[in-house]
Amino acid sequence: MEQTKKHEEARYLTCEKYYIYELLIFAGGMMGAYTYILRGGVFCNAQTANVVLMALAFGQGLWKKGLYYLIPIFAYIAGAIVSEALPTGIRRRHFLRWDTWLIGFEILVLFALGFLPLSLPAQIVQVTINFICSMQYNTFRQAEGIPMATTFVTNHIRQTGIWAVNAVRKKSPEAGRRAWKHLRMIGTFFLGGLILTLCCDPLQEKAIWIAIMPLAVIFAVLLRADLFAERQMFDRKPHGH
């Protein structure tokens, strides 16, 4: 049994390991709390709310307000385009994977945002986080073969219910394991939001630097894998890509 488990784990690249996704969604919860509390009262991790708010604004005849929501929506689209277009060329260079570059880029962006005073228009930070959240969501798709989101939890809530029913109905240990993994993602996202909330008052705009901590751990792990452990695996794509 133990040997089978080790064999299964060896099938996945480091960027697909479940603990990487837990750290990613931990940072995702922090980014959501940061933009909501300090940068305009919005969640930048996903775009469903922006589409609804745009529809509400248009329905009330607030055309200028409604058109504004196109900016974060297009920023999210741009993030998806960039994260879809760049990986192939980067992989051919056989130096670092796109996943590693992305995490490094996120760290630099969040570090820079921490220097922007709260007196600046919140939209600057909102759109920037829209962009990096889109890239993160589109890049990290499956954790050890299980579809995952790392910037919001709606699907994790749904999947927890689905796999919990399957675990009971079919008496399936695998279904129970999947339900537990999705539930942990929800809890980790919540914990990230909670911790960042507690940091907002004392740290103000620099509170976003707390989100750099889990990303820095991920970056170090992925960098080590790219340069050493998985040096000969650059042609392997993560599952789901």
Give an overview of the whole structure.
It is a single chain. This protein has one domain. The two termini are 29 Å apart. It contains 10 helices and 2 strands. The mean pLDDT is 93. It has 241 residues and is mainly alpha-helical. The chain has helices at residues 2-10, 18-38, 48-59, 63-68, 70-92, 98-113, 122-139, 154-169, 173-203, 212-229, and strands at residues 142-143, 146-147. The protein has a two-stranded antiparallel sheet with strand order 1-2. It is globular.
Provide a concise account of the structure shown:
The protein has 241 residues and is mostly helical.
What's the count of strands? 2
Shape: globular
Number of domains: 1
The percent range for helix content is: over 70%
Low-confidence stretches: none
Q: Radius of gyration, Cα only, in angstroms?
A: 19 Å
What is the rounded distance between the termini? 29 Å
**Strand residue percentage:** under 5%
**Order of SSEs, N→C?**
HHHHHHHEEHHH
Strand order of the largest sheet: 1-2
Category from helices, strands and their pairing: mainly alpha
Give short descriptive properties of this protein.
two-stranded antiparallel sheet; 10 helices; 2 strands; 241 residues; mainly alpha
